[in-house]
Records
---
Amino acid sequence: MMSPALFISLVTGWMVLAFTALLATGGSQALRGLLAVLLMGLCAVGCQPAHTMVQALMLASPALALCVRVFMPETVAREAGGMAGLGPFLLAGNATLALSCGRCDLLVMFIGLGLGVHLALGRQGDWTALRVGLGGLVMAQGGLFVLQAGWGARQEQAGAVLLAGGLLLACGVLSGKERPAGAPEGQMALLATTAVLAQAAITWPALHAALTFLGGVCLLWSLLPRFRAPSGGVDWSGCAVLAAGLPSATASLPLAACLLALACGGRAGRGAGAPGLLWPPFLPGVALALLLLAEMEATPGVALLAGACLWPVFTGAAPAGTEPDPAARARAGLALALGCMVLALALRGGMVLA
Amino acid sequence: MLVLLLGMVVILSLSGSGGRGGGLAWHAGLAAACVWLWQWAQGRVGVACLLAVAQAGMVGLLGLQLLYGQAGPRERTGLRLAGGLVCVAVLAQVIVPGMPGGMTGRLMGLAGLSAIMCGVWGACIARAAPALCAGLACGLDGVMLLAGLADSPLVMAETLVAAAALNLMLLRARRSGGSAS
């Protein structure tokens, strides 16, 4: 048995270890892989006794994203030189810590730390990231204060809109400019944010409506032609936000599936671009089916809208993915294994809707 | 009553602090005084006041740096417009009765919120780096006000760190820009 305090201190120790090891040795491929697998094992061991299986899957998603990032060959070449390879490790540790703490104020602090890491290690003088990140965090903190003050129903709605919108803005979901594909900071922050927001929505029910609305906006936003032109995949951020806005009884399994799909495929969805990946039991297909089913029970109108939004993506994705490279194949295998796991969970625990 | 008046002045000073250094420092000082008076009225003068004064110093430093840069008319008009809208919203809130929490606390919360919204809005429409920093610092001041209201030293320390980081970034950008030109 492992208490949350022990788990948090272990993850902090892992971050310090990764930082010093990568700085000392320059970050060879074997060491990076070893560190990523170590975090994965830490998550697998640490969260099993305390939480249910679904929460364990959610908690492991940043480590999974880190593993995908480390082992896929196309990112290695880009990050070979200098300090840039350090960033994903620190961000993954941050996201795991934020998930295990599960509090909104600490989440704001951890996203701010991630932003600082990006500005210090990544491109220096990135004013766009500063504008979007810090502005969003300031808005989220203000909304959080309004929610905590408990002024009344209407003020709670305003606070929920500020909190959700600010956090999503800080994750770079609704920003106007598309980031380079597979940028780690937005993906990791989104993985932590949606899970913590879904938890906070139990306390403040006004968050449900705000999250559902923002998820619909994200889906519509990803339909703009300039955003889906290169990849042709599904943008999973909208689906994850939509899943976080579900009522808390049905939210956990679709949210976990969406987060796993987000961790496997990335924001641009290049791994999910192949048409075969969208069918069950591949993970993206499972996530979509679960999400649409649960949404159909909660609010049928939103489910119909989401399904209609996804249709152009499907038709556009058909001719893509003619020649799968090894990275896409490995990602497909991972998605298949995870999809089978999520299906088994859904079958064992009764259905989502039961 | 003094907190009430000071909060009103904070809100009014929003419309004047359009990306220039002096306005920003004035705004930071007002916010710190507001936090200090609030704590004093509650009978708890402690670490929060120190943090607020430190934040005022940080933002004032940022304002000193900003004196070297210039804000365009675009940013200034945006801030003025937002300030005017916020004043109307605040007046409407004060007129409508029936909100719990006390008049002073409400007005302080609204001052913080309006500072946040104006700062983020100003940062969103800003093009140059100094104006962006000014907007973000304004938002941080608002967070500081709300943290003083909710009495949470953790968030105050966070805003302090963020303001220090803003100072550093602007200093570095100014140095590199100076050496380049």
Note: The radius of gyration of chain B is 16 Å.
---
Amino acid sequence: MSFAGMGGRRGRVTQAGLHLGLIVACLAVLMPIVWVTRVAVVPASMSYSPGLLPQVSSENFEALFAGRFPRSYLNSLIVAAGSVILAMPFAVTLGYAFARFGTAGRVGRFSVLATQMLPPVALVLPAFAILRSLHLTDSLFGLTLVYAALNLPFLTWIMMGFFRGIPVDLEWAAMTDGATAAQAFRIVVLPTALPGIAAAGVLGFILSWNEFLFALVLSGPRTATIPVALAGLQTSNGVQIGTVAAGVVLAVLPLIVASRFIQRFIVEGLTFGAVK
Amino acid sequence: MARITLDRVSRVYGSGAVGVHEITLDVADGEFLILLGPSGCGKSTTLRMIAGLEEVTSGRILIDGRDVTGLRPRDRNLAVVFQSYALYPTMTVRANIGFGLKMRGMATDAIGARVEEAATLLGLSPYLDRKPAALSGGQRQRVALGRAIVREPEAFLLDEPLSNLDAQLRAEMRAELVRLHRSLGRTIIHVTHDQVEAMTMGDRICILRAGRIEQVGAPLQVYANPANMFVAQFLASPPMNFLPARLEPDEGLALDLAPGLRWPVPAAHDGWGRASNSSVALGLRPEDIHPHPAAGRVPFDVEAIAVEALGPETIVTGRIRAAPHLPALKVRLGRGPVPRLGETLVVHADLSAAHLFDPESGRVIPRLARGAVQ
């Protein structure tokens, strides 16, 4: 492969340098993933031994499933999906109002993001106090509620961006065609924004899935999510590195699926409304 | 059937900017009216106010004498075709065309029949199950038209529907719209900034500038009798030439353009007498400057400083030899030898077709003293 204007010896040297740089960068990104996978699939006793795959064993996964991990996995799924489902209707309607009617003005729209600008540590104690007064600590619903609140501002902004990309002509056309404003939103705008809603939903899911601090403070052993459960494997008897690695591999799986999904939808979302 | 009346309609925005200023206009039932003007002149705003998509700040809009100013768009029974076509991207062509009927609660079978009928009329039958994204620009534009036609509205409001098409398709669609207007017999208000569309499609043109009406009339009548310099310049391409001059009494009247450049005014133009001894703007269309002499034409020399050979005609931009400080003139020459750059041509101004304007107000100075229609 060669780029126009980069022929000749000098061009080849530049190419080689470029590829070398890219290979190093790829390795830097991929090595941790490769190594975690490797540690997960070799017996615990060989976690630190040399060689890529001295022996393959499911020992680490068995150890993981013998403990509370399956429960935590389910908790994470419930909390992450639940928070998105809870926040999305508000994000969609608020984002639409912001985009189409300029509701709340510039200052209002920005102040929605205020909680995103604070360090999470500043929010975790008030959140704890509120949940305790509602008897919702150590409860999946409580954690879902908090994640929904944390996700709402940024989901709203993402939705606002998508709605801005949908031409107002579409609604006008629907309204002259006989639809009410609400029908125009429901029948025309919402389906057009669906790729955006899906993309925002997946982003919200990933954020909740990875969240550690709030889960640590607000959950108990029964309601721990994956990040908390994995942190729990660093015991006083040392870190059970093989089991942690197995947990990480399983925790990353939904994210890989989600990122493929989101890629497709974001690209589709960018081109979908553009009927000109 | 719909007669659309605008009674001192204004649109003022929250910021205080005036979009449309006290427009009064009467569109007859079955008329094809063109709203023409440069971008930002308020033509699309006017259209949207008629459709009910934009708030009316003051004034009234009547359809067949019924005040619809406060009515929702859906209650006006008008169809709008947007510049962007505004096709619903998630629906098939069939669903797009049938949407308005569905919203009005028509039975599915009846919708199907009406959609098929409209699709046949517009040559869209093979594409009924496609989504808009899988259609060409021309096909999308037809779907947008189909969506409007199928509802059998009282009137059609078209907001620059041809501006996204290429030149050839635009010419075809122009003819098609005129044909549709004839066969449907409905009122059409067509917004455009394209003067070819304005001249060829409408029964009347309404020319807007900065939210005000400059002139309303039949295309050829407006072309022949522009009310002011703006209309004279806007409604033709290349636009009318303007030359500053003084009108002096001289065995009748004469236009004094520069020392040694004095053109006699045709005796019939007695209306110009009242501008005697004052500064005027002489308006001469490029097609009223001829390469050949004839009675009543005034010869003068121009140096060609730009030449656009278009095939059927050649547009020469020329500087007047005797008065190089005057604005350069556009001259429209027919088919024939194409002049070279720098060449001096003898051309002949037909002053019987010339217009005079007041350079201050821009208003036309009528040719005839009694203000008779020419």
Note: Chain B has two domains: 4-229, 234-365.
---
Amino acid sequence: MKPTTPLLLAGLISLALAGSALAAVDDQAAKALGKRNDCFKCHAVDKTKKGPSYQKIAAKFKGKADAEEKIMKNLTTGPKVKLEDGTEEDHKIIDTKDPKELKNLIDWILSR
Amino acid sequence: MNKTALCAQIAALGFFGVIGSGTTLAADPAKINWSKIPATHVPLFYPGQSSYEWLRSDAHKNAAKEVKRGDSCVSCHDEEDAEKDMGEKLVKAGPLEPMPIAGKEGYKDLKVQAAYDDKNAYLRLQWKTQNDYPGTEHQYLRFDGKEWKVWGFPKLDKIVQDRKMIGLYEDRMSIMIDDGSVPGFAKQGCWLSCHDGQRDMQKQFTKDEVAANPLLTAIKKSDVRKYLPETRTDPLDWKTGKTVDEINKIKAAGGFVDLIQWRAHRSHAIGMADDGYVLEFRLSDAGKDVYSGNADSKTHAPKFMWDEKKVGYKSITVDQLHKGDHFLIREKNAVPFDPNAGWKEGDLIPDYITSREDAKGSAADNNAIASWKDGTWTLVMIRPLGLTNSDDKALKPGGVYNIGFGAHDDNITTRGHHVSFVKTLALGAPKGTKVDINAVKLP
């Protein structure tokens, strides 16, 4: 058997991890939480509304270690955020007491 | 065939003669092959009291600024099932629905198809009714042993809510059409016309307020109904009407929306839809409406009753409701009321009489055929092209219009309807123009 090169192995491991992370996202639960909290009034997956698209947010945080922490802060503390029209508004605080539900929503956003 | 369908087709025969009499033949709407015409599904939802004023208030969370700026409703409400979610929420008790109707649905799917030929535009609309009968009954005059009194009221009326009166009101399908002349309609549609102060809305008018209002007294109105913001000096306050001269100038510039209403009792009976417009009020077009009141203004007794020789009865009783077509049609089955015909307590005669023969002028422009089968209304509205009346929006081939839909269902009127966000309708969309509903040119 031909030995696997370290580079290929790293690639496979990375792919597997990415795959497991994506598979872990509960799409329906994330959408339901988002809908319940009116997230989609201001955000869409692939187009700019009052706020940036989820694809834009995911791209912005791609590869950044503090992505989850920063999005968590937006969703749980309601800081002032800059809207696409240049004005500012307090971000909506997501109404859930379930940290897993919140983490799932963040993972869903980051996987767009 | 049920009686409703039969009646509509008999009535329609009258207008086929009319539309076929010109030099250009119009299509027979009953024979249009609708299976060849694309359908658009338009979501309708229960809006409660979400008025023009409420949408601009802080209660409309994080959206007042955007609405005031003129953003479209769907710039926010475009997510999957947006209308369904909103309707099902708003139909229940809450800040926008102080008097919920038990069991009322919050959402309706409206299937829309459109076509046109050289003479007319044809709009085919299909929607399910909540009840297992067509809402063709409307309010009656009832003899109580001494006098005739109005009987049967819409379900939002307190007397019905208090279970002291039966809920009774005709089904209705309404469309508002703008040709681009009404500021804001392309973005916010029917919500421009729905205001606090109106019937069954927040801060409903009082009779004294109306009596003291210069505009409403000038146009001889005794309540507050739909109006466009441009007709008020302060669009957030119905009391601030502009002068009649100023409003006439807005009308002359086309700053009104056409309002076509098909009524399952008062226009369906004669194969028509009524023709009106919204400007400083919800107004009928010039001429004579397709229906009129049947109560004598002084005695409140009926002016007409059914012709017993033709229909087998001169009145009905409550046990006959929703069992057949109870239309009073002046030229077909009505005779002058006879006060000495041996009336008994509980006798019912329609409070409205309809007439194709009497309908005249701009108010009589629109035809319609409809049938109700297996819980679904199928309606074809027929609107002549190129109308030149000052109270009509002229439809023409290649034209693109903003259109809003509203369905009244289950014995209700005013806010108790299901409405759409504004859509675009084209009569043959110009190349490169994307519209929601594209009417197909008939061969």
Note: Residues 6-24 of chain A form the longest helix (19 residues).
---
Amino acid sequence: MHELSISRSIAATVRESAAGRPVERVNVELGQLRQIVPETLRHCWTLVVEGTDLEGSTLEITEVPAALECRSCGARFTLRAAAFRCERCGSREVTIASGEEFMITSYDVVGA
Amino acid sequence: MGRFHHHSDGAFHGHADAPADSHHDGHHDGHHDGHHDGHHDGHHDGHTDGHTDGHTDGHTDGHAHPDGLPAARSGLGDHSGYDDAGERIEILERILGENDRTAEANRRDFRSADLRVVNLMSSPGAGKTSLLRAALERVASRVRVGIVEGDIYTSIDADRLSGFGAAVSLVNTANGFGGECHLDATMVRSALARLDLPSLDLLVIENVGNLVCPAEFWVGEDAKAMVYSVTEGEEKPLKYPAMFRAVELAVVNKVDLLPHLEFDMDRFLDNLADVNPDARVIMTSARTGAGLDEWCDWLTQGAGS
């Protein structure tokens, strides 16, 4: 359950950046290779912001599918199985093209 | 809706009412390049391919972006363009950026002390402490070892490691760290204050027993290793790929139990190779002593003289 400490980390970053402006939504990008459960993260967010200046804000999570590129045959595909193997030629010489994202991309502030 | 804001580099970005993806494209490549090059060297080696084209200045300060886009932190960027309308403010900050900045500070301390640092992880009961004890018995006379012992509540493991001449610094994650199920860079940093790093050759960070969370947190180490016991079954690499992908060494422990188990070693090794084909494997039994010389050689490589 590291989602709690991760929520705290997100809140600290947004709080510093927003500098008191009212935040209604925080947008994060989460690669599917990260072992973080979006629903748990959203829940932890509500716990972490409760009673703070960020209370009432929501965490908008955009999940990024895991995409692999095969270094042997050049195939690019979305990872569907647990194994990191080329779905065309079976090679294990694969590169992760996406799926490890873990970013706060933006936040939305409320108009005055 | 005035979803425009002004970056200090003079560029205006219009975000109309476009949600999510449309405004990402222009920034991602630069960011991810910097992210991987600047922070992940030596800790996620297997993951960096494909992100290494070009940019090298990285995110070491966490604010400047390789493509010239400043993070929207206080004091950086001019956001005076908003008045009465709501606004989307781009920030593009790595969620673990603060952790990684602290990890960089740890790493600098490790380097200036000329110290090899290993982050040792596993599920509870796989044998991290037993293997460390065995290693201390064998190497403590020639290698000066320090241990950061991560434990939620107790000093049981730290006590088991005492008496071998190693300097042990205990971090109870329940004390001020929310009872976390992993060690992060800040917790490790708090433990370093109680160790005389220049007097050591090797520092082993025994993480909290957990197959999920510790894999996400770089603490400044040179190498990640894990202990896996044959009682855990063959399929765990596929269920916890982040952990198995993060490590350069998987110690397969308790091999003395193999005659009593239905553990299929070939299937386990195949599953491991499916998620991390580059992982080195050492088979051990802390009980019988099998494989311990090889384990000690790996652990102490490049440490001391």
Note: Residues 1-82 of chain B have pLDDT under 50 and may be disordered.
